[in-house]
Design goal:
GO molecular function: 2 iron, 2 sulfur cluster binding; cholesterol 7-desaturase [NAD(P)H] activity; metal ion binding; monooxygenase activity
CATH class of the largest domain: Alpha Beta
Strand content: 35-45%
Largest sheet: 7 strands, antiparallel
Pathway: Steroid hormone biosynthesis; dafachronic acid biosynthesis; Hormone biosynthesis
Order of helices and strands: EEEEEEEEEEEEHHEEEEEEHH
CATH architecture of the largest domain: Alpha-Beta Complex
CATH superfamily of the largest domain: Naphthalene 1,2-dioxygenase Alpha Subunit, Chain A, domain 1
Organism: Bailinhaonella thermotolerans
Helix content: 10-25%
Subcellular location: Membrane
Subunit structure: Homotrimer. The two-component system 3-ketosteroid-9-alpha-monooxygenase is composed of an oxygenase component KshA and a reductase component KshB.
Length: 339
């Protein structure tokens, strides 16, 4: 049920990052806590990552505490029941009869862009779409990075992705000199946008201003992928960034940034990578106090589902917030959705 601060369900249907790929190793159980639940991750002998609920369906032992991986099965530490990657119980050491309901809840997994993602749906539905690959993950180019930073933030995933369409706050909060939405396209589970901005270039660069052309792709409510071309009076920098947002519980999300810069083969690029990464993270940190201390305002057409809270009143020049909200509603299973 929605809580008092957020009138919508806390865990919308989407792909979400639950670990960096390097954290999940063959033959070992990796414990995580997302979606208000304990989960386990592991790799089989082929290197494929898997995800499941942490608690044994038999008598509730935590499989991540004393459990182990043997012959590509998860072995419970309590009664040594064994479960396959699809959740089926295949062995009980003291019984030849396996109860049909003895199944471990598992989650679809996609390994992409250096992370392990799971598809979370409260109804247990399977995914019909995937998270695309970052440009920096493709062959044929050398990239510096990733530079990774993460934060636990008291907010809802919807608030963070509303930000993607809110062009006005780029000037009022992040001090962009100019910022415009050049295009916005909503296509099934994907939102593609192009944004042009002019910023102070930062110290140590020959020009006072930098022009950025950002092309973003939002995949569900868990991932945002961006390719940027930043021009410093003819000196161009190519950037590739991934943001991931995963609900931890009903009040908090795990917010991570992965930044790459295309290696131009000169001495300046590594320093520029660090400088732009600093500026990017500074902007994210400027957003966080807003996220943590605001209330959610529904569109006027959805305000009746927001417990009497006054609706948002949007103005010209604020981007595609209303269109993004209408698009995002597909990820909520409740009919009376306040988004």
């Amino acid at each position: 049920m929605p809580n008092r601060r957020y009138p919508m369900q806390p865990y919308p249907t989407s792909w979400y990052r639950v670990a960096d790929a390097a954290e999940v190793t063959e033959g070992a159980i990796h414990r995580v806590h997302y979606f208000g639940r304990d989960m386990i991750l592991w790799r089989d002998k082929e290197g494929t990552a898997h995800a499941a609920d942490a608690y044994c369906p038999h008598m509730g032992a935590n499989l991540g505490v004393g459990g182990r991986i043997e012959d590509d099965t998860v072995v419970c530490p309590f009664h040594t029941w064994r479960f396959t990657a699809d959740g089926a119980c295949v062995h009980i050491p003291y019984s030849d009869k396996i109860p049909s309901q003895a199944r471990l809840r598992t989650f679809p997994v996609q390994e992409v862009n250096g992370v392990v993602a799971v598809f979370y749906d409260e109804r247990g539905e399977r995914p019909a779409w995937t998270v695309p690959e970052l440009d920096s993950m493709g062959p044929g180019q050398d990239w510096i990075g990733p530079r990774v930073r993460g934060w636990k933030v008291r907010t809802h995933v919807q608030e963070i992705f509303d930000n993607a369409a809110d062009s006005a706050h780029q000037k009022t909060l992040h001090a962009a000199l100019e910022y415009v939405t050049a295009s916005a396209e909503f296509d099934g589970p994907y939102y593609r946008g192009e944004f042009h901005g002019t910023y102070d270039a930062g110290e140590g660069l020959p020009e006072a201003q930098a022009y950025a052309r950002n092309r973003s792709l939002q995949a569900g409510l868990g991932f945002s992928l961006m390719r940027s071309t930043i021009d410093y009076a003819g000196y161009q920098v190519e950037r590739s960034v991934m943001l991931s947002v995963t609900p931890i519980d009903e009040e908090h999300v795990h917010y991570l940034s992965y930044q790459y810069t295309l290696d131009a083969g000169d001495e300046l690029t590594p320093a520029v990578h660090e400088m732009i990464s600093d500026q990017w993270e500074k902007a994210l940190l400027e957003d966080i106090p807003i996220f943590e201390n605001k209330v959610f305002r529904s569109l006027p057409s959805r305000a009746r589902y927001n417990g009497g809270e006054a609706p948002a009143f949007l103005c010209e020049g604020e981007g595609d917030i209303a269109r993004l909200r209408n698009w995002a509603r597909q990820f909520y299973t409740e009919e009376q959705c306040a988004v």
